[in-house]
Design brief:
This protein is an alpha/beta fold. The chain has a domain of about 80 residues: Arginyl tRNA synthetase N-terminal domain (Gyrase A, domain 2), CATH 3.30.1360.70. About 55% of the residues lie in helices and about 10% in strands. The chain has 21 helices and 13 strands. A four-stranded antiparallel β-sheet has the order 1-2-4-3, with helices on one face. The chain has a four-stranded parallel β-sheet with strand order 6-5-10-11, with helices on both faces. The radius of gyration is 28 Å and the shape is globular.
Length: about 575
């Protein structure tokens, strides 16, 4: 149950009844415990708009709102805030009988475009944020009952593939030599930069590839297969839900590109400019005040990313019948997507009801504040990053719990290491840059994956020591102590948080909630004896433990982070 949404709905109905028109209630979690659990902040703006007295309006609203089943008698504070405290019976009933996460009453078809590496190289840290943020959102949306269509829009087309295929053809490289894609790419790039004749042949190869030449396509497919295998190995290791079936590459839109340009021309949206075909929209202007072009076809007849992205919008809206399309790319592409969405709307490539949403993210920085790289200044391969994460986690786990068997120790290290890398990213505001710091992300204190994973293991250890299974516990907990109540209030907010992340695309909100929940549990654990309490109290507190453990595990699972039995 989304308590905040329920309270908002009821207060907005009461406001409408009093004022005769729809007014937002702005119900928010209370900023401080003394204000209760939720606070209605929409009374003062509504009163100002109606030129009335806020406290008088608050009293009229409270006379009409139906919330007796949810909260204690409300309190009007200050000039017109309404403070709400949830009833203990409501908290106990919700924890005892409501599912952890209810599915939406309004399921949608949602396309999530994420990861999308360039297949010319191995995956590196630049692909990490798109991959794990996109996967968390895909998991979370699916858990809410939406139909999620994952789209891995890999880069498998363009001039660089002419270079790679020409080098592959000339060297006759075997599969073993292709295994190190980064080295192969560097060798081909050096040849392309140093040898004009090779560069010319590479451009000719691109033309033959685009025209469907059988030899070029065969060599291209061989390269793509090797590249995709590299990607899938990383996805499997990260626990990311992308599969080969989710790949819908740039090349998949190749046959649609000419029609995209022709349709823009038929609608009078295309303009010739210096030999290229462009779309100019008045809402996008440069510093000189002139409209910025969206180039859809170059003067040599070639197509660009914009053309492919317009084709992708049309496919996702018309063929996949998407209600929402989410694009996870770095913030530097914000202008590009604003232009693409605007052109797609103007051309009718997107249905009017399809929501096109760019969800940009910031950069991953080193501790020096610069883009994260190796000490030699090179881009860090993702596989090497994960190797280091597991190695560092193994040392920590071995020191913390040396009696663990070797195979279990390595399994725990994998979960902790990979989880730490993912959580360090997901716990930061998506739109912001963040500093990648090994010491911080692997700490067992603070807002980190190891801290939350350890909280889960502590709860499991309580049940092992008490030789209790959750299924034998009473359904409803008693909520008497302050620490019990604080924990219960957080537990009933889980649905609210998940639905907010689904709407805003900001996983850090869920991370922050899970951290707050785990710290509230630690306070409860210290303040309220559990296994040594009287039988009735013991069972009730174990019920709170079970609900907390289930919520932490589900929440971490939605983020794609594994939990373990022991650490």
């Amino acid at each position: 149950m989304n308590v905040r949404a329920l309270l908002t709905e009821r207060f907005e109905a009461a406001l409408a009844a009093v004022l005769g028109e729809a007014v937002p209630a702005n119900v928010q979690p209370a900023g401080r415990p003394e204000f209760g659990d939720y606070q209605v902040n929409g009374i003062m703006p509504a009163a100002k708009r109606m030129r009335g007295n806020p406290r008088a309006l608050a009293e009229q609203v409270l006379a009409r709102v139906a919330i007796d089943d949810l909260v204690e008698p409300p309190e009007i504070a200050g000039p017109g805030f309404i403070n709400l405290t949830l009833k203990v019976d409501f908290l106990a009933e919700t924890i005892g009988s409501m599912p952890l996460l209810a599915t939406t009453a309004h399921p949608e078809r949602i396309v999530v475009d994420y990861s999308s590496p360039n297949l010319a190289k191995e995956m590196h840290v630049g692909h990490l944020r798109s991959t794990i943020i996109g996967d968390a959102l895909a998991r979370l949306l699916a858990a809410l009952g939406h139909t999620v269509i994952r789209q891995n829009h890999v880069g498998d087309w363009g001039t660089q593939f002419g270079m790679l295929l020409t080098y592959l053809d000339e060297t006759g490289a075997n599969s073993a030599e292709l295994a190190d894609l980064e080295q192969f790419y560097r060798a081909a790039k050096a040849r392309f930069d140093d040898d004009p004749a090779f560069a010319a042949r590479s451009r000719e190869t691109v033309v033959r590839l685009q025209q469907g030449d059988a030899h070029a396509r065969e060599a291209w497919q061989r390269f793509i297969d090797v590249s995709l295998a590299h990607c899938q190995a990383i996805y499997d290791r990260l626990g990311v839900t992308l599969s080969p079936a989710d790949v819908y590459a740039e090349s998949a839109y190749n046959d649609a590109l000419a029609d995209i340009v022709a349709e823009l021309d038929r609608q009078g949206l295309a303009t010739a400019s210096d030999g290229a075909t462009c779309v100019f929209l008045d809402e996008f202007k440069g510093k000189d005040g002139e409209p910025l072009p969206v180039i859809v076809q170059k003067s040599d007849g070639g197509y660009l990313y914009a053309t492919t992205d317009l084709a992708a919008v049309r496919y996702r809206s018309r063929t996949l019948a998407a209600d929402r399309v989410l694009y996870l790319t770095d913030a530097r592409q914000a202008l590009h997507f604003r232009q693409i969405f605007a052109v797609a709307r103007r051309a009718g490539f997107a249905n009017p009801t399809t929501r096109l949403e760019h969800m940009p993210f910031g950069a991953m920085l080193g501790t020096d504040g610069r883009p994260f790289r190796t000490r030699a200044g090179e881009v860090v391969k993702l596989a090497e990053l994960l190797d280091e994460a597991e190695a560092r986690a193994l040392a920590l786990v071995a020191g913390k719990n040396p009696e663990l068997p070797e195979d279990e120790r390595r399994a725990v290290a994998r979960a902790v290491g990979i989880g730490a890398v993912k959580y360090a990213d997901l716990s930061k505001n998506r739109a912001s840059d963040y500093v990648f710091d090994w010491n911080q992300m692997l700490a067992f204190e603070g807002n980190t994956a190891p801290y939350l994973q350890y909280a889960c293991t502590r709860i499991q250890s309580i049940f092992r020591r008490g030789e209790v299974t959750p299924e034998t516990l009473p359904v409803r907990p008693a909520i008497d102590e302050r620490a019990e109540r604080q924990l219960a209030v957080l537990l009933v907010r889980f649905q609210e948080i998940v639905e907010q992340v689904a709407e805003d695309g900001c996983p850090h909100l869920l991370c922050g909630y899970l951290y707050e929940l785990s710290t509230a549990f630690m306070r409860f654990y210290e303040a309220c004896p559990i296994l040594n309490a009287d039988a009735g109290v013991r069972a009730s507190r174990l019920r709170l433990c079970a609900r907390t453990g289930d919520t932490l595990r589900l929440g971490l699972g939605l983020l794609g982070i594994e939990t373990v039995e022991r650490m």
